[in-house]
Amino acid sequence: MDLILWRHADAAPATNDSEPDIGRRLTGKGRKQAALMAVWLERHLPDSVKVLASPATRARETAEALGRKVVIVPALAMGADATQVLHAAGWPDNRQTVLIVGHQPTLGRAASLLLLGEEQDLSIRKAAVWWITNRMRDDEFRPSLRTAVCPDYL
């Protein structure tokens, strides 16, 4: 299984305490970041990738830059934990590549759980993609980081 973690792009700050965090939209910079990463992803993704996103506006807008069907998963909202991310993806048994668009620190913790065997606060930059693959090595499945890329380097 391949699991791709895509942190949402740059979003507008909350303007006041009464504005719900879930409704924050991408900034102009964030739309550019999402578009750059979408072009890179489109060159590398299989046709059958399943795209899952947090219900937060900034995550949905990031995912929509890809131009593919996006499934909104409430369990991926801000405050989700690493195990919810892995459960939503069907890790490790899903045979389909899954791309999840979500938030920090959840995505960093999910990556840490897979790659290091324990939850730690790994930092995934805004709009960055971490692609984790789970392949058979030495008679057992072992997750490894296939690539990590952010729009600053594209």
Report on this structure.
With 154 residues, this protein is α/β, with parallel strands linked by helices. The protein has a single domain (2-11, 21-153), classed as 3-Layer(aba) Sandwich (Rossmann fold). The protein has helices at residues 28-44, 57-64, 82-89, 106-116, and strands spanning 2-7, 50-53, 70-72, 98-102, 129-137, 140-149. It has a 6-stranded mixed β-sheet with strand order 3-2-4-1-5-6. A hairpin with a 2-residue loop joins strand 5 (129-137) and strand 6. Helix 3 (82-89) packs across helix 4. It is globular and about 55 Å long. It starts with a strand and ends in a 5-residue tail after the last strand. The relative contact order is 0.23. The model has no long low-confidence stretch (mean pLDDT 94).
CATH superfamily: Phosphoglycerate mutase-like
Q: From N to C, what is the helix and strand string?
A: EHEHEHEHEE
The CATH architecture classification is 3-Layer(aba) Sandwich
Mean pLDDT: 94
**How many strand units?**
6
In one word, what is the shape? globular
Strand portion, in percent? 15-25%
Q: Percent helix among the residues?
A: 25-40%
What is the CATH C-level name?
Alpha Beta
